[in-house]
Specification:
mainly alpha
């Protein structure tokens, strides 16, 4: 089972990003088409299992992967 995102409260407001790198990444990664492509690719390599830990949402994996590549 793939979780796309954490559920956020209705009144949730994201804090301002202080780093220009984070601002640039946030602007790029908010593209829904890019996120859909990432989820599609992730689902091809994902095993479905009910045992073990709860899965990490795809959005977290997505953002951490791009951040790791950006910062090298």
């Amino acid at each position: 089972m793939i979780i796309e995102r954490y559920e956020r409260p209705v009144d949730f407001t994201a804090p301002a990003l202080s780093s220009p790198i984070f601002q640039e990444l946030d602007w790029i990664l908010d593209d829904p088409k890019l996120f859909a492509l990432f989820c599609h690719d992730l689902k091809q390599h994902y095993k479905t299992s009910r045992a073990g830990r709860r899965p990490i949402p795809a959005e977290v994996t997505y953002r951490m992967t791009f951040l790791r590549r950006r910062k090298q």
